[in-house]
Amino acid sequence: MFSSRLPWSNAPNPLTELLRATRARGETVLDLTESNPTAAGFSFPETSILEALADPRALGYEPASAGLLPARQAVSEYYSGRVDTDRILLTASTSEAYSLLFKLLADPGDEVLSPRPSYPLFDFLAALESVRQVQYPLMYQAGWSIDFESLERQINARTRAFILVNPNNPTGSFLKKRELEQLIRLCRAHGLAIISDEVFSDYGFGEDPERVRSLAGIEDVLTFSLSGLSKVVGLPQLKLGWIVTSGPVSERNAAIQRLELIADTYLSVGTPVQWAASKLLPMRRHVQAQILDRVRENRSFLAGQITSASPWRLLATEGGWYAILQAPRIRTEEEWALLLLAEDRVLVQPGFFFDFETEAFMVASLLTPPEIFREGIRRILARGL
Question: Would you call 54 helix, strand, or coil by DSSP?
Fold first, then answer.
């Protein structure tokens, strides 16, 4: 009776079951997995947000397949005017953007390349479109980089697109200029489009002239740059994302026309948030400053707690909201996560949630309020003594 696109199993994993039981007993858990800015103790300009959403124009309905022009102009201004509005298409979320792009680029049974490790979302999004996800590895050698040799071996006649998360979640690694050059050559040779997920691009640590922050200006190969209010302004509940289409003019225009037709079929973006976009996007400076201060402070504390004698290791990162700890190999990732929750009341995500190739890694959110983060980290590192 039901679709076989996904294995529809809702059986909880052992960590989820233990967390539920722990909280049911009324015990306090130091949650180092918080990824929701609205639940992390930041100050938002509440009055201004509500006023932006009270625009009386939201009472009318003007269907526009690419999104209302004022909203697309606001997105163009986010890119400092470097992106024309006719290259911008609004979506209800980045997840929906992937769905539209898979419909645009792939037939059922075709393949898309996605990074490993990465956020565990692409397999579900691809499966729901009857597209197969094929993972390519990121290598770690004092920093993360694309394993191009392995990547090229994954390409075949059914490969349609290369997915880049820039910076990656959870590794926090940015694409470098030399990697971009190699990637463009590879995609041109095999006729692949690039999907560049740039939701964390505003959250880089420091400066690096070799870092590529956005692919929104690429002219050599068909490229789609994705972002949205969820991370840019820390407002995931307002459901506004976008796709910027770049590349050779003829391919770009053909893609834009087809994307608008697909989007017109759904018309999913809410009118109130579109009219509010021009006021919401400038608020990012206030919110991002707080988030950047928080993640830098937490990461600095974590780095300062790991001495040369510690069996724990902090992996290098360039941005984003997460820290990766390499745990002593005396236990598996699942064993570490269960132990930390059961005995220390600290919740972290094991590396296999993100498809790390080897063990043992723990992922902690740098978005966590500092007092919770510090105590949680102290408890974790004490386990290695």
Answer: coil
